[in-house]
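Dear Dr. H.,

I hope your travels went smoothly. While you were away I took the liberty of generating a structure for the chain from your last submission, since the lab meeting agenda had it listed for discussion. I wanted you to have the full record in hand beforehand rather than looking at slides cold. The sequence, exactly as received, is reproduced here:
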Amino acid sequence: MTTTASPFADTALQATFASLENPHFLRACLRMGTPYTPLWLMRQAGRYLPEYRATREKAGSFMGLATNPDYATEVTLQPLDRYPLDAAILFSDILTVPDAMGLCLSFAQGEGPRFAHRVADEAAVDRLEVPDMDKLRYVFDAVSSIRKALTLANGKARVPLIGFSGSPWTLACYMVEGAGSDDYRLVKTMMYARPDLMHRILAVNADAVAAYLNAQIQAGAQAVMIFDSWGGVLADGAFQQFSLAYTARVLSQLQRLGPQGQVIPRIVFTKGGGLWLQEMGALDCEVLGLDWTMNLGTARQSVGGATGGPGKALQGNIDPLVLFAPPQSIVQEVKRVLDSFGTTHQGAGVGPSLIFNLGHGINQFTPPEHVAALVETVHHHSRTLRI
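The corresponding predicted structure, in token form, is as follows:
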């Protein structure tokens, strides 16, 4: 088997992995060999864990939890203390950026996010601007606190920390609708009736997201992810114009190296984006996340690249509701998903790689012991698929 070296400089790669006890997630992001398929789970710190619910009770509210670096650190580490996951993800929310723009985010018990001030007209659009990042200091303080908490006695981190933001389009959906939506009527009406206003919102959002993610990198995030949660609700043509183009605008502004000269992998996840996978393959990022509607083998052929050549690492993509089935069924579904991707390398050079994950966030009613079955099966079965 012929392999070539990573496209990144050896000094940057050394800085990337040297501080980690477990570098497998970052290695897979860079399409480098790993002894097994690393995994983490979207919303892995959340309501399905009783310890999370206890901490939220102490905090008094979701925002009380998210804006307190000590609480955010505590809940970020909770799933790592339960399961041998290969990465931590910052506990926060995708809507912190528009909250810092003055839209006033809140969460009622049992309901989703809601803004007190909706971006409903041209005057509201005119008021939008990239927020002062000091308004988001609690997020960056949480990143630094989590990094410190992940550090072992030998000075190395247990696992890397992922920072994240919502995509410009996904943020716009909430900003214009004022909350979640079943039909996206308000945001799509603006998009079709006044595309000039929508482009102005998206431009501000893209520049704000880039500044936000760069500040997370400076605070210690070792990879960053853009959640384009609602890109898949767009029509073909509209997706490219109103979602993909502004995700690309964010990526073009992101720092490639962290404070210690380490490579910062960038992950883009569009729920419902399988139709546009080849176009997403042209994005300037290292990893593409997939929901459960996409076959991993097909995605690998489309954008995963050949051994020794360029391509995207893939992340995903089991249906989160598989976790409600009995453990023996979970085991079989995990194996099926891993088998659909196929074998991957564990030696030198670069080649197709997978980071196992859910196809969307974990459901709040998921039995925690079922997650344990998933994690164990991924680590065990994926070792049999190494070459």
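Two observations you may find useful: The longest strand covers residues 161-166. Residues 10-383 form a domain with the TIM Barrel fold (CATH 3.20.20.210).

With kind regards,
E. W.
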